[in-house]
Amino acid sequence: MTKDARQYDRGMWLLEKFSLRRLRRALLAQVRGEVLEVGLGTGANVPLYGAASRAAGIDMQAARLSGAVNRAQGRHGRLPLLIAQADAQQLPFAHNQFDTVVSTLVFCSIPQPERALAEIRRVLRPDGRFLLLEHVRGQGRISRRLTDWLHPAWFALQGECHLNRETASAVRTAGFQIEQISAHGWGVLQMMQARPESG
Ligand SMILES: C[S@@+](CC[C@H](N)C(=O)[O-])C[C@H]1O[C@@H](n2cnc3c(N)ncnc32)[C@H](O)[C@@H]1O
User: Which of 106, 108, 114 to mutate to test the pocket of ligand 1 (most atoms within 8 A of CB)?
Assistant: First the structure.
């Protein structure tokens, strides 16, 4: 596992323990069939792909993917998992290939989210499901002000992560119907299940 992957996991440890792990478990309980995860990172979701028959995961950063390789080879590694360095905005997969697409904490940093959403819609089967857990623009009055206020400094410091994206609206605009949506973490995290709109 690379230093970058280890540092990422260490940095996320507290959040994972007190919030994310529980949310990931709830989200991933809905996985079925052939699964694609975009922005796989160090593979925190890999042990939770319970009902998947096959899985593929892509990420822009090869260094992060080393963590996912480790997890896939661990005790949960009986599932066939293809791991590749690729851009979510240009997915190297055929039309209608997947039953489930997963993204967790990814749409904050994709440069052109609408391109990635169009790609996800392309590779997802018409009866497939798109599962997201994303940090977003605050949903309450105070959290919205706070994410808007913090965003410029955070982005300048961090370089890629947007604190105030309206991901649910972008998902709808891309031609998905959101079937379930819930807010967590004082309204700055949203968990969604969406399906492609017919037609
Ligand atoms: C905050 S990490 C989240 C990783 C993992 N999904 C998780 O839940 O722990 C965001 C990840 O999205 C990846 N990413 C950002 N933009 C991407 C893109 N255009 N295509 C593929 N991966 C991307 C980053 O490289 C990074 O690993």
Answer: 106
Q: What residue segments make up the domains of the chain, in order of their start? A: 3-196
Identify whether the C-beta of residue 171 lies closer than 8 Å to the C-beta of residue 110. no
- Span 64-74, average pLDDT: 84
* Pocket of ligand 1 contains residue 85 by CB under 6 Å: no
Distance 100 CA to ligand 1 centre (A): 17
Closest CA to 110 of 130, 133, 88, 132: 88
Helix (H) or strand (E) holding 195: strand 189-196
Under CATH, to which class is 3-196 assigned? alpha beta
Residue 150 in this model has a pLDDT that exceeds 70: yes
Would you say the pTM of this structure is higher than 0.85?
yes
pLDDT at 51: 85
Arithmetic mean of pLDDT, 143-155? 95
